[in-house]
Amino acid sequence: MIVADRKNVQEIRDMIKDHDRVLLVGCGTCVTVCLAGGEREVGILGSALRMALKLIGRGNVVVDECTIERQCEDAFIDILATRVSEYDAVVSFGCGAGVQALAERFGKMPVYPGLNTQFIGILESQGVWTEKCAGCGNCRLGEFAGICPITRCAKHMFNGPCGGSRDGKCEVNPDLECGWQLIYDRACALGILERLGAIAEPHDWSTGLDGGPRKVVREDQRINT
Amino acid sequence: MNDQPLILAFCCHYCAYAAADIAGSMRLQYPSNVRVLRLPCTGKVEIDYLLTAFERGVDGVIVAGCLEGGCHFLEGNLRARKRVERAKQILSEVGLEPERLEMYNLSSAEGNRFAEIVTEMSEQVAKLGPSPLRPDRNTVEQNFREMTQQAEATIAGEIQ
Ligand code: SF4
Ligand code: SF4
Predict the structure, then answer these.
(1) ipTM above 0.90, yes or no
(2) Cβ-Cβ contacts under 8 Å, B90 against chain A
(3) Judging by beta carbons within 10 Å of its beta carbon (0-12, 13-18, 19+), is residue A5 exposed, middle or buried?
(4) What's the rounded Cα separation, in Å, for the pair B38 and B50?
(5) What CATH number should be reported for the domain holding residue B36?
(6) Which residue range forms the structural domain that includes residue B131?
(7) Is the pLDDT of residue A46 over 50?
(8) Does the CB atom of residue A149 touch ligand 2 within 6 A?
(9) Can you tell me the distance from the alpha carbon of B87 to that of B102, in angstroms, rounded to the nearest whole number?
């Protein structure tokens, strides 16, 4: 899932303080699961923002809340359409895609981000999320015993480890596990260590973000084209 | 009396609420401007309950649960403490003093301790002065009543 966390109350307050009516919009999908932008968090931030605005003499700013199922699909944004016209700004508590989806849909409405979108990751333990994939567009997990060298090695090395791997920890930060130690250990456990003997080919970054925003197209699913 | 801070105490039914009862029957003196809101467990406390109380103008909030290790629901009070910490963080970002919110632990037999906690918190909040968000006194009292009614309605049937 996409993992995000909340912005500081003051940062959001300052983005909206010159508006008169602001709608906070939560998203019921990834950011609800990672406890950043679902109905409950939007309620908390709504309360916090109303208080923070009042304390700077902007108590007359109306701050309302609502949460839709998914901000990154226009069909779900439909139900917001009539409501949004009653406001002069929106704060999206979706991921960065959600914020931009609302901005595209509501061309004349300022849409601000309520969250800092972090990464694609997993729930490691209750309350802890960890990055696992950088969305490189050309997945090579099959070559590396199922552990991503781009995400899990601080230097994104395809032929690791570097000389700084010590006792399973990464030299960049002793709290980090060395991604290459993990690859090595899992390759041993799977009995495929010899596969790592071959030099790994350089990565094809043309499928990555450097070429501008990417698209995935499924011709068989398209309509009206 | 009207100078005393207005404090809302979220009290667990199994300890602090009972202790408040004992404090009452022992006729202990404690500040009168504390309103008790009963919960089945402090684990029921959500961050938005705490913030809503401040938004509605209370000067201070107490969350009072069982002694650590003594929670009727095992760890509700430990979770409540973490939520209180997060709420304090949010309050400081909002621009309110986090000391307006505190969590305490006590047992159902400690009527004295209840009176002490309330006195201590009342003094702590009095030093900070009234909340800058406080509306007029009648509105806050009305808000107190509404919050208590809402809480009682929410927990109806949950406490045997
Ligand atoms: S190789 Fe690319 S797609 Fe696969 S996990 Fe790593 S970043 Fe994600
Ligand atoms: S120590 Fe391991 S994880 Fe860190 S940069 Fe070197 S190979 Fe990558």
Answers:
(1) yes
(2) 9, 44, 48
(3) middle
(4) 14
(5) 3.40.50
(6) 7-153
(7) yes
(8) no
(9) 10
